[in-house]
Amino acid sequence: MKNSLLKGLMVFLTMLCTSLTYSQDVSGTVSDASGPLPGASVLVKGTTKGAQTDFDGKFTIKNVGSNAVLVFSYIGLKTQEVNVAGRSNVNVTLKEDSAELKEVVVIGYGSVKKKDATGAVDQLSSKSFDNVGAPNPADLLRGKVAGVQVTQSSGEPGAAASIRIRGNSSIRSGNGPLIVVDGVPLDGGDVSPGNDTGLGTQSARNPLNFINQNDIESLTILKDASSTAIYGSRGANGVVVITTKKSKSKEPQLTYSNSFTFSSLASNLELMSADEFVANGGKDNGSRSYNWEDAIMRNAFSSNHDVSFTKSTENSSTRVSIGASNTEGIVNKTGLDKYTFALNNSNDFFGGALKVDTKVNYSNLRDQAALISNDAGFIGNLIGAAMYWNPTDKLNNADGSYNMSPNGGTGINNSFLNPALLSDAYTDYTNTNKLLASIKSTLKINDNLNYQFLFGVETSNSTRKSQLSPGIQIQNVAQATAPGSSVVKFGQAGVTQIERLNRTFEHTLNYSKTFNDNFIFDALAGYSYYDYTVNGSNFSARGFDPKQTNLIDNIEGGLQNEFRASSFRNRNELQSFFGRANATLYKKFLITASLRADGSTKLGANNKYGSFPAVGLGYKVFEDKAGLVNSIKLRANYGITGNQEFAVNSAVARASYGNNGSLNVDTNANEDLKWETTTSSGLGVDFALLNNRLTGSVDYFMRDTENLIFPVPAAASQPGPPSPRFVNLPGNLINNGVEVSANYKLIDTQDLTWDISANASFLSNKMENFAGFIQAGALNGQGLTGAFAQVVTNNEPIYSYYMYEFRGYDAAGASIYADAAGADATLGLAAKKLVGKQGLPKMNLGFSTNVAYKNFDAAVSFYGAFGHYLYNNTANAYFFKGAFNGGRNVPASVATSPQDAGDPNSPSTKYLEKGDFLRMGNLTFGYTFTGAALEKMKIKSARFFVNGQNLLLFTNYSGFDPEVNTDKSLNGVPSAGIDYLSYPRSKAFALGLNVTF
User: 937: which residues sit within 8 A by CB, 6+ positions away?
Assistant: First the structure.
């Protein structure tokens, strides 16, 4: 008996000692990329024992087994399991979960869980952005979202960019999406002036340049009527919702980011060297030192710096940021300096019953431009002058002065421009101050009902100053003669100013209630009023004293009879009533219905208001199932949206005073002018497969736009109207297409993650029931006055190419074209015709992959466009045999071609090239530093990265770059796919560091 008791006691003591030996208290700190994480959950796996982290991200759990597994979790971050392995201190850093980030998406006037959305909605978080700051947010969307095409007009820093969501839905009105920043819809008009130097017009800068990329939390793209109809008359082209960052950490946090970028010319036009020029029969002026790129280009350097501070309490949160960037262009005397300030402050009052959000975004932009224009004539602009310069001619004389008479020319009749002199003689600065501010108050009436009021202000002041000094003499440009004198003076200067003040007033009432598991309902009702005002002025002068150098600040130095001044002011008001209801039935059926009524001062007196309804349906076939098929949701939508992006005062009779008080009638009234309307329908499916490793969506859509607004020209004879009149044309613009997007997690472990994302969109469009034949795509250059390359006509895609069909050269070197029947013909018998090609891509593609191993990360992205053709207006205007025989440089293939020097260079398929391309957009490698050394310096996190942009391009296009869209509008009708003396794109390498204290 004693032995049994002794044995039992020994077993008990052994178990007790073992328990004391292998059970312990475990403490530690939980962090995310921003630092310590309050409120994170720590649980001992397989038990209910656990804790939450405190204000400093710290936790303690008592009596934890040495082989226990701790489970760390936090909303929006990846859950992480860590084996204690006998340790008493366990620190972890949780990573963001891309699937969780996309769980809730921002929509019009609210947000919705992605799995409950009935519309086609995509969202990019800030983690999806590339590491180098983009001059404008549109760049961040390039290749990332199915159905969204972003095309920058040129490679110039700050150049305008077009965003097309599911193609073009209008002929002459705007085709860009509505941009909403923190709930404030932007006006969408140019905030900076364009310019006309006499050597062609220059476009305004991108109106989105004012936003700092590092202040953006997410970009949400609303693509179909179910999601955009809540914006009514402004939703026809889709909506991009930009949400800025706010404070997420209760602990004060200071972040500093920088990057340094080195840029150079990405591709080259192979023009002849001096030796090749002479060998092929060109005139030899003795020099061998000229290189057209060196004459006007440089290797550029850019820098970007951002500082932000965040702090939160139980009842408030504040984020303040300051940014400064300097972006040099690869063309001399071009670039963009950008200074930004952002404030995001939120305060709760009365125990959370009232919440007030204040947001401020301010920017100062300083653009510097070279003389690169959209529609230069025979003489050319800076790019044209540099390319056609005889490579055997010198730029400078022996004494260092500029060569004023190149190629043997003399005086102002010389049609050759010295590119170095032109660059030096031209000065062009645009200074823009932009403020976007809003205050939103949310009153919680009860648990289910709240009221919101939003007041927003968007204001900008932009001044563009330019001059062409009298030291350069150009034929028929910037020259003037005083009355009663024969002395010709040169030089011109101009100052143009645009001011905008836009105000937003919105009242919304939100109701949300879960009645039971089978019925969840929420509704929105609202009223909004928008007031958009723009005014501007311009004054210019010509004919200055040759000794005067600073013309801009002494513009009265020009000839009195050449002084010009003008001014304008426009105002547009929009009043709206809207509502939306969402219901979830039996956890499977989703219903969204919305209606908006808009009234606008732009429309005719008889059609001031329009109604825009929409409905979206969803059905969850599967949701959160285990196995191969995890979730499948079917979607369908139908709705009507409008387009009000047409000229203000289009419906009213408008007159203006000209010089000396003359009265000009600009437009005639049309009291019946009404909205352009787009009827949209679509089907879609969202899926999650292979244990949620493969997720994505497939969508089919169709859009039908009618009541197209277009000006009917003034009557050629009386008693017809003497000025244009805007009308709604009969006809339908049909867009339809398919979108596919997918994301696959190849590897998802603690130390190694690897995911791949891809998207593709297939688009077709056609005009139907349309009797018109509208010219588009203006061409410029020698022999191309009045020429055009595209038309809009029935049963054809918009911007279809219309021109001669080139068949080669005859024995005499004359171009052969097809006649009306398609047979070979001389130019006299040839017929311009539709050639079956279009300027808009039929397919857009995007691909990206991200890999992370412990502290290392890498990412690469590609995008491309296919199925369209580019018209090389540059080659049409500059690269032909007659230009070479006239002393201009050309590619060797042109100099040796069988074309006769006297052969007219008519617009034809000779200059029509496939625009297909695939580009590596970004390649990034990064490393995140950790360890005691950082903690000693009070650094929470630090990441160093190396980035490459535009490193690879696959294309057969012979121009600078296939991703181009020079503004070649004709009578207000835009163009697509025309390349003319465009600013070349650059390739770039960047180094950067992000540090959080």
Answer: none
> What type of residue is 746?
L
The mean pLDDT of the chain is 87
For residue 35, give the nearest of 773, 896, 990, 940 by alpha carbon: 940
Report the distance separating Cα 478 and Cα 304, nearest Å. Answer: 38
Residue found by looking up tokens 């510097």 in the block: 368
Helix (H, G, I), strand (E, B) or coil at 742: strand
**Per-residue pLDDT tens digits for 173-196:** 888 899 999 999 998 778 888 888
How many other C-beta atoms lie within 10 A of the C-beta of residue 935? Answer: 10
* Ramachandran class of 811: left when φ > 0, alpha when ψ lies in -120 to 50, beta otherwise: alpha
975 DSSP 8-state letter: -
H or E element in which residue 280 lies: none
Distance CA 604, CA 651 (A): 5
Helix ranges, 341-478 (H): 382-388, 419-425
- What's the chain's Rg over C-alpha atoms? 32
Tell me which H or E stretch contains 111: strand 110-113
Give the closest residue to 97 by CA, choosing from 74, 116, 121.
Answer: 74
Is residue 584 within 8 Å of 519, Cβ to Cβ? yes
In the three-class reduction of DSSP (H, G, I as helix; E, B as strand; rest coil), residue 267 is classed as coil
The enclosing H or E element of 460 equals: strand 449-468
pLDDT in the model for residue 15 = 42
> In the chain, pLDDT over 70 holds for what percent of residues?
94
* Rounded-to-integer distance, Cα 267 and Cα 953, Å: 9
Any idea what DSSP says for residue 271? P
What DSSP character marks residue 379?
Answer: S
Tell if the pTM clears 0.85, that is, is over it: yes
Tokens found for residue 841: 């891509």
> Do the bridges between strand 23-32 and strand 92-93 make them parallel or antiparallel, or are there none, so unpaired?
parallel
Using DSSP, state whether 385 is helix, strand or coil.
Answer: helix
Cα angle 340, 344, 348; round to 5: 165
Q: What is the pLDDT of residues 547-564, one digit of tens each?
A: 999 999 999 999 998 899
Helix, strand, coil: what percent of the chain each, to 5? 10, 50, 35
Assess contact for 799 and 790: CB atoms under 8 A.
yes
CA 580 and chain centroid, separation: 29
Signed CA dihedral, 926, 931, 934, 935: sign only: positive
Task: Output the six-digit token pair for 976.
Answer: 């697509």
